[in-house]
Specification:
It is elongated and about 85 Å long. The protein is about 35% helix and about 25% strand. It has 2 domains: about 300 residues, Zn peptidases (Aminopeptidase); about 110 residues, Alpha-Beta Plaits (2-Layer Sandwich), CATH 3.30.70. The longest helix has 21 residues. The chain is of the alpha/beta class. Helix 6 links the parallel strand 3 and strand 4. The protein has an 8-stranded mixed sheet, sandwiched between helices. The protein has a 4-stranded antiparallel sheet with strand order 10-12-8-13. The protein has a two-stranded antiparallel ribbon with strand order 7-14.
Length: about 425
């Protein structure tokens, strides 16, 4: 029996996968609230005969963000353990040796936004939407768990199934690591997938080297002197100062970061003012910084503080910056990627496996990749005929459900190939 035949998804399983993805999609849960999703995962693992441990991990922000900066930002992290994470375990039963250990990961949380799609499985929870495909990721890993449990006689070793909370800014992966998921037995390699509208369903893509960027956040509080809009000479105009700070920040990337180093600095919100004839006393800017190199990351943080404070002082105002370091850059290991590529070519065909490029999005799988060889690959979900073309985090994001079975096949095949499973 070939690898493609072993990981074949039956029509019955395909129907279940589609139904399950929709069930999760209509009931999106924000980070650290994934109770119903976690319960659904546990129910399926029980039915599939897969052993699991609930309550793994939690809020990871206290593990990677500076405590003082969190306090200044008004963020009080929750506990880093006892959360909604689930760790499933499939132990091989071939009986020829201890074997290796591979970790497979799916994130479960949704985003705080309203869905604009007009579909029967549209989110029923106002202000919450699975706009990043985590509903599909979770469904895929549940399918993989079932396939691997049925085929555990083909391999030795252990497959760890990481159903993770809080990826969207909560560092749930790091919290699960702190809870020991990479140990006992020690993980030798890790794999994850992420939906992508770059390719249609049936296609995957991957690369080695940088996969995602370090994702930092900032707030800049500008304080001046309020006054009447008709008499600016009696005020210190925070709107004007904030505008100058924005211009100055953009010059950090264009003038101080080397041309061959990649970085993005985006001011995304400006909050100030109450009326058209009042010069406001305060203004707040927020945004994000994305980098691949830690040296560039350090430079931008340092210069942002100097530029904001210096410009404010020049205009008789004050500026205070709150800089929260988010996830680090994620790196795909070359050998681990090659195993995934070969397995996907064997199962899907060479024409359906592509090279990808690094992204500036953030990803807390980076904490796993910093500890064990890791590969995150992209699963195509585009369907132009149905208008499924929008990127993750868009209110009209959706996924072609034909991709779910492809995700199950590819991830199961990768795990079996890594564990050197028998095909007889």
């Amino acid at each position: 029996m070939s690898l493609a035949e072993i990981v074949q998804v039956s029509p019955e399983m395909d129907a279940w996968l589609r139904e399950t993805r929709r069930l999760i999609h209509v009931n999106p849960e924000l980070m650290f609230e994934e109770e119903a999703t976690s319960d659904l995962v546990q129910k399926h693992l029980t039915e599939a005969g897969v052993e699991y441990k609930p309550g793994v991990g939690g809020d990871g922000r206290s593990l990677y963000m500076d405590a003082e900066e969190l306090k200044r930002a008004g963020i009080t992290p929750g506990p880093a353990t006892g959360g909604t994470g689930v760790l499933g375990t499939v132990v091989g039963a071939r009986g020829e040796g201890p074997g290796k250990t591979v970790l497979l990961r799916a994130d479960m949380d949704a985003l705080p936004m309203d869905e604009e799609n007009d579909v029967e499985y549209k989110s029923r929870n106002p202000g919450k939407m699975h706009a990043c495909g985590h509903d599909l990721h979770t469904t895929v890993l549940m399918g993989v768990a079932e396939l691997l449990e049925k085929n555990k006689h083909r391999f030795d070793g252990t497959v760890k199934l990481m159903f993770q909370p809080g990826e969207e800014g909560g560092g749930g992966a790091l919290a699960m690591i702190e809870d020991g998921i990479l140990e006992d037995p020690k993980v030798d390699a890790a794999y994850a997938l992420h939906v992508s509208p770059e390719h249609p369903a049936g296609h995957v893509s991957m690369n080695h080297g940088p996969r995602s960027a370090a994702a930092d956040m900032f707030e800049i509080h500008v304080r001046g002197v309020g006054g009447h809009g008709a008499f600016p000479q009696g005020a210190v105009d925070t709107v004007y100062v904030a505008a100058q700070i924005i211009v100055g920040l953009q010059e950090i990337v264009s003038r101080e970061v080397a041309a061959l180093d990649q970085a993005v600095l985006s001011v995304t919100t400006i909050h100030t003012g109450t009326a058209m004839n009042i010069i406001p006393e305060r203004a707040v800017l927020t945004g994000t910084v994305r980098t691949y190199d830690e040296g560039v990351r350090d430079l931008i943080q340092k210069r942002m503080t100097e530029v904001a404070e210096g410009i404010a002082k020049a205009y008789r105002a004050e500026a205070e910056i709150v800089y929260l370091r988010g996830y680090p850059s994620m790196q795909n290991d070359e050998e681990t990627v090659q195993i995934a590529r070969e397995a996907c070519i064997e199962v899907l065909g060479e024409d359906f496996v592509h090279d990808s490029t690094p992204m500036m999005a953030g990803e807390d799988m980076a904490y796993v990749s910093a500890r064990v060889p890791t590969c995150m690959y992209s699963l195509g979900v585009k369907n132009e005929e149905r208008g499924i073309i929008y990127p993750p985090h868009h209110p009209r994001f959706d996924a072609d459900e034909d991709a779910i079975a492809v995700g199950v096949q590819s991830m199961a095949a990768i795990a079996l190939r890594f564990l050197e499973a028998d095909e007889a």
